[in-house]
Automatic annotation (TrEMBL):
Keyword Metal-binding: no
Principal location class: membrane
Protein name: Osmoprotectant transport system permease protein
Transmembrane segments: 20-40, 60-86, 133-159, 180-205
GO CC aspect terms: plasma membrane
Pfam families (UniProt xref): BPD_transp_1 (PF00528)
Amino acid sequence: MDIDWGWIGEHTDTLTEHALIHLRLALLPVLFGLIISLPVGMLCRRWGWLYPPALTVSNIFYAIPSLALFMVFIQYTGLTAATVMIPLTLYSLSVLVPNVVDGLASVSEPVRQAATAMGFGPLRRLLQVELPIAVPIVIAGTRVAAVSSISLVAVGQLIGQGGLGYDIIRGYQLQFQTQILAATVLIVLLALVTDAILVTVQRLLTPWARARMTS
C-alpha cells in the first residue's frame, strides 16, 4: 500500500481536530457511565436483589446494535453529538456496573469491621476505605469501556457525528487508502494513550499498591 505522506502533512490540523472531537465523543460517555454506575453499584451491593435486574437491563442495552440505537435517539436528539453519546453511555454501563459491584465486594469484612471499630460511619467508611480499595477493579472496567467507546465512536459518522470516522468513510468513498489508514492509526493511538493514562491514574490513587510492589 502506497502512503501519501504529503497528504498527511497537509491535513495534520484537520486530523488533529477530528481526533479531539473523537475523544470528546468517546470519553464523555465513559465519564457519564461512571457517574451513573457508582451509585447503582453501591445500591446493588447494599441490596443484593437489585443487582440481577440492573445487570440484565445494562446487558440488554449492550446487545442492541449501535446504529439501531442511534436511529432511536435521532428522533429525539436529532443529528447531534448527544445522539452518539447517549448510546455509548448506556453501553458503558454493562462493563462499569459489574466492576463497581465487584470492586466493593473485594473489600473484606474484617477491613469493614476495623473501619467501624475506628469510628468510621457508613459514608466515611465508603469514601475512605471501600472505594479506594475498589479502585483497581473499577478502573479496569473503565479501561475496557474507554477503549470500546473510542472504537464505537467511528460508527457515529453515519449520522454525521463520528470524529475520525469521517476520514474512514470519506477515504472509502474516494478509495483513498491513506486517509483510511491515518484515521485508523490515530484511533488506535487514542485508545493506547487513554489506557496508559488510566493506568497512571490507578497508580496515583493506590499508592499502597506501589509501596507493596517496591517492597
